[in-house]
Design brief:
8 strands, alpha+beta, 2 domains, 6-stranded antiparallel β-sheet, about 25% strand, endopeptidase fold (from Nostoc punctiforme)
Length: about 170
Amino acid sequence: MQKILNYKKGSRVFLKTVFLILFLFFINACITTPVSRADRFASRTENLNCQNIISAAKPWMGAPYLYGGNSIEGVDCSGFVQQIYLQVFNTKLMRTTAGLYGTGTFVRESWMACGDLVFFKNISGRGVDHVGIYIGNNRFIHASSSRGVVISDLTSDYYLKHFVSARRYVE
């Protein structure tokens, strides 16, 4: 009889231990935030957008700046954005920077994703007169009036000083 009582006491301890481990496991599962399917899909989509934008822009790299231009022989910032969006997203955008700035969905700087358009004010500080395409890691691709189509860093002094906002045109 003593052996049976000891066995039952031992199994109670064992069961309590198993219960405690399972309890802690479930609590931990509730505390950690798993990555949802939607988040994983969004991340893959964003990476694909970046790759597609960069691939589409490669032939344009170094293309000279030409106000009003929209070809590799000469392009301005909004013409470049319009051509890349048409090729990558099959989306026709407005032709001017001001027109683009008046449309799209505002995006906080910390939430920018590949394909969002980034807007800059001119030197006088009045109005928005430059646009580029965000490609991740604080970089954007655009038609610079002095260097043609290039990739630039948003954290450089010039662009930090002139940055206005970002806008999203595709989900």
